[in-house]
């Protein structure tokens, strides 16, 4: 058997479209998941007890079951409850819920890492509530969570490929379509993997660059 | 159309065996490779470090789904023979495990102070003995909680093997769901089985980590 990539070039615009949809799905899930993460982390630290238990339950259920099964439940089960979501939207919801559970844990750890005494020190210096939040809570916590948050983002980008299993249009699904047209399975998936790799590398570079730009102040250990 | 019954439940549990087989295979084959990658990454020879880092970036940069497809369709292309799906899936999960565990274990090795290597060298131990008797055991303690955490990821991710037709728990769930038209019930049962497998490991990993932090 020989490799033959030549048939694939006809589909370059499809692949580009798929890659853009993958990016869109990633961004939607990352933004929605981060919102869940911030609210969840704040509530799990200081909310009423039933709310804290509910959030803990959510985190444990999501983190201890496969994302694929979560996606199937949302896609196949919600219609029987009267909520019919198209594949792409269902995947966006499932991935947001999935990313949210991880985001809560990451953000909570970042907030936990700030010593209480540091907040009190800020107040003693006469900083306003906003200044305390900005300089003592937000920026140091952002610095703490940055590495784990960005690597979770990359895992999310790769995880959006699951959406193809409910035939949501994105890069992996596009690969399946081209495969069914050309029967060059290996070549198609090699190219699809290469595109994912390029996307991941681009994000890793940007994240590393941002880290250098944003967190210049020295840390005391 | 029929309803979900004991026979479906039995087929789910017999498919669970293949999930377990896949996890065992990935650990048995991927574990040694992970150790090799971790040692290469903390080697004194730069080319070895670069090679390991390259493999790591490459495998961590593609989706596991893509890795599965790559080996499933690629092995016949490169080897010229049809391989059973267990082999293709096993190879993909071996690569996945090797890379992620390798990175975790490298972190463990690097968390041990450089002076421990030097002290061991002063005692006249060879490089391997330094790792085997001095650095390794300390790194093991540090790396155990995330290793158990990775095990949970691995169990969950074996569900992806279903996409190349390998019948494990998730695939058996899909088939039962298609036969009974009761996706809510079937997928809830499947999710519950994964949950009962993974939750104890998650709790154990958290306890190990708390103990490690307490000891410091």
Automatic annotation (TrEMBL), chain A:
GO terms for biological process: amino acid transport. Keywords: Amino-acid transport, Cell membrane, Membrane, Transmembrane, Transmembrane helix, Transport. GO terms for cellular component: ATP-binding cassette (ABC) transporter complex. It is a multi-pass membrane protein. Residues 19-207 form the ABC transmembrane type-1 domain. It is found in: Cell inner membrane; Cell membrane. Pfam families: BPD_transp_1 (PF00528). PROSITE patterns: ABC_TM1. The complex is composed of two ATP-binding proteins (GltL), two transmembrane proteins (GltJ and GltK) and a solute-binding protein (GltI). Part of the ABC transporter complex GltIJKL involved in glutamate and aspartate uptake. Probably responsible for the translocation of the substrate across the membrane. This is Glutamate/aspartate import permease protein GltK. It comes from Chelatococcus caeni. One of its GO terms (molecular function) is transmembrane transporter activity. InterPro entries: AA_ABC_transptr_permease_3TM, ArtM/GltK/GlnP/TcyL/YhdX-like, MetI-like, MetI-like_sf. The chain crosses the membrane at residues 20-44, 65-85, 91-111, 188-210. Belongs to the binding-protein-dependent transport system permease family. HisMQ subfamily.
TrEMBL record, chain B:
Residues 12-205 form the ABC transmembrane type-1 domain. GO terms for molecular function: transmembrane transporter activity. SUPFAM superfamilies: MetI-like (SSF161098). GO terms for biological process: amino acid transport. GO terms for cellular component: ATP-binding cassette (ABC) transporter complex. InterPro entries: AA_ABC_transptr_permease_3TM, ArtM/GltK/GlnP/TcyL/YhdX-like, MetI-like, MetI-like_sf. PROSITE patterns: ABC_TM1 (PS50928), PROKAR_LIPOPROTEIN (PS51257). The keyword Ribonucleoprotein does not apply. Pfam families: BPD_transp_1 (PF00528). The chain crosses the membrane at residues 15-38, 50-73, 85-105, 184-204. It comes from the Bacteria. The keyword Disulfide bond does not apply. It is a multi-pass membrane protein. This is Polar amino acid transport system permease protein. It comes from Chelatococcus caeni.
């Amino acid at each position: 058997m020989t490799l033959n990539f030549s048939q694939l070039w006809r589909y370059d615009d499809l692949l580009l479209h798929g890659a853009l949809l993958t990016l869109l799905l990633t961004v939607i899930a990352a933004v929605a998941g981060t919102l869940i993460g911030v609210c969840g982390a704040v509530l799990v630290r200081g909310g009423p007890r039933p709310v804290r238990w509910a959030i803990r339950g959510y985190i444990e259920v999501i983190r201890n079951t496969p994302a694929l099964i979560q996606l199937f439940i949302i896609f196949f089960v919600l219609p029987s409850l009267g909520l019919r979501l198209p594949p792409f939207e269902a995947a966006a919801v499932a991935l947001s819920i999935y990313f949210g559970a991880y985001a809560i844990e990451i953000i909570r750890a970042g907030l936990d890492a700030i010593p209480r005494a540091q907040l009190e020190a800020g107040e003693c210096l006469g900083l306003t509530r906003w200044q305390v939040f900005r300089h003592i809570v937000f920026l140091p916590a952002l610095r703490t969570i940055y590495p784990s948050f960005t690597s979770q983002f990359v895992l999310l980008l790769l995880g959006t490929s699951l959406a193809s299993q409910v035939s949501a249009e994105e890069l992996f699904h596009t690969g399946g379509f081209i495969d069914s047209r050309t029967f060059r399975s290996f070549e198609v998936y090699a190219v699809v993997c290469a595109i994912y790799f390029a996307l991941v590398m681009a994000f890793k570079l940007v994240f590393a660059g941002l880290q250098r730009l944003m967190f210049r102040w020295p840390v005391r250990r | 159309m029929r309803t979900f019954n004991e026979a479906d439940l039995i087929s789910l549990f017999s498919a669970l065996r293949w999930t377990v087989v896949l996890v065992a295979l990935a650990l048995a084959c991927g574990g040694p490779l992970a150790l090799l990658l971790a040692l290469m990454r903390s080697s004194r020879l730069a080319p070895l470090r670069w090679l390991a880092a390259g493999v790591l970036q490459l495998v961590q940069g593609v989706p596991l789904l893509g890795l599965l497809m790559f080996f499933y369709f690629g092995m016949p292309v490169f080897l010229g023979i049809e391989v059973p799906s267990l082999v293709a899936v096993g190879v993909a999960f071996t690569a996945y495990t090797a890379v992620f565990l390798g990175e975790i274990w490298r972190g463990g090795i690097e968390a041990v102070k450089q002076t421990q290597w030097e002290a061991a060298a002063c005692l006249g131990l060879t490089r391997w003995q330094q790792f085997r008797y001095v650095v390794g055991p300390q790194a093991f303690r540090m790396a155990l909680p995330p290793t158990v955490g990775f095990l949970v990821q691995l169990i969950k991710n074996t569900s992806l093997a279903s996409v190349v037709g390998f019948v494990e728990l998730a695939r058996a769930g899909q088939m039962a769901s298609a036969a009974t038209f009761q996706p809510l019930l079937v997928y809830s049962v499947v999710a519950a089985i994964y949950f009962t497998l993974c939750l104890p490991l998650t709790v154990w990993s958290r306890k190990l980590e708390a103990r490690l932090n307490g000891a410091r």
